[in-house]
Write the structure tokens for this entry.
Amino acid sequence: MREEGNRALHRFAVITAACTFLLLIAGALVTSNDAGLAVPDWPLSYGSLLPPMVGGIMYEHSHRMIATLVGILTIILAVWTWRKESRPWVRNLAWAALGLVVAQGVLGGITVKFFLPPPVSSAHATLAELFFITIIGIAVFTSRWWLSDLPQLDDPRTPSLRTLTVWTSVLILLQIVLGAAFRHNAFGIIPHIIGAIIVTAMVFWTVLAVSRRFRAVKDLRHAARYLEILLGLQLVLGGVAYWAVLAARDAVQPTPVYVSLTVAHVAVGALTFASSVILMLACYRILKPAHAAHLESPTERVAS
């Protein structure tokens, strides 16, 4: 019964994560179309649940509707996890997700009420990514893969792959913060470019470590490959998106090319962050802590 319950819960968490990804895209569409203040009131839209879906109102109100759906799904997910999940830390993570989605809604309201202040808008975009990763974490932790008997492998090298993946995920998150700040006019592009260079170096270091140390471990190899592919795509999108930003600087309205490229850059950035976190979780599930390898006796290491 517990396995069946976790399987259904896992599928629901995956659906919630997919809807959250759509919400990220909807939010990016609002920003790229300069539609953040197309609806000047909150939580209603022009005092109505169904305003005229024209112009920027369509983007902003659609964003709110998808956010409402994600909020409802998160409530269901939190209650379902609380009732069916035996691991306290997974239950706590589900409640944390609910807290994040509530905070996200409040920040969204503040951005409208105070006319899109860059720090608040940047925080709103960043919190959306953290919420997305939290839901993905719940989906991973309730999966059959996580609950199955997996080999526990040693990683005696320094720095450990666990450490590398943590730093990679942290740096990608910081890069997302820098990108959000640039998009919301908190500061210029230079910090984001510097961040991209640092993240690229860190991802290559991590992927290379996986290839050299655990080439035979399919789960780690595949996760690292997805991270590498997504980062490459993100770098290309970043370059062409910035070109689109410069090309559309004097345009009266956001151009379709500008909107498409900037939204794609945000979407792939979220997927890159997600892939780095999934690789990190896989390392924590499969690889022993560094101190555990040092505590083993030579005989135990040979036997393993």
Remarks:
- Confidence is low (pLDDT under 50) at residues 295-304.
